[in-house]
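Any chance you could type out a protein's amino acid sequence plus the matching backbone structure tokens because I've never seen that pairing?

——
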Amino acid sequence: MIVVGILEPRPSDANGDGPSALASAISRRAAATGARTEIVGVAPIGTAGDRLLAGLAAAGVGHATVIRSGAAGIEAADLDLALRYLPDVRVVALVAPSAALVEAALAASAWSGGPVLLIGPLDADAARLAEAAEPAPIVLEPPAHDPDDAFAGVVAALATRLDAGEDPAGAWHSTVSHLALELT
């Protein structure tokens, strides 16, 4: 199972370029591979949230742990509860996470054994936690502009390979090798 992203609807996402758009794109791409994919986070109350969740469900993305609220993001305690509710988690991918969310994901990784992907930008506290973690999480920085969701595809491919049990170095090598083949 893959938990992809923390869905945090923000006003800056109105044009589809922000963190919640990236979390949705990664989760949709992972689900398209046939991997069981769950998204954790906050969806707005009302028709906008209904459309968002219906679109994720249609793409095969589970959202049993999405909170319907006007909140700006998910709390670390909610992430911890979601990860306990989804005990088969192999990979946790966090999009633009706070230090508290990084800490919760790393703690879950310690008991689940699954790798953690941190998709930046990371604030200084989150970066310090990532640097001190053992095993180290995989940290990826999204491009400033990605109209074709190519970065989401790379993250989804990497997460899917990790979820299938590949070691991080092998999963990374397979992912970038596949990209090189697609570009030629």
Observations:
- The longest strand covers residues 37-43.
- Helices lie at 19-32, 47-58, 76-85, 99-112, 124-132, 150-163, 168-183.
- DSSP finds seven helices and seven strands in the chain.
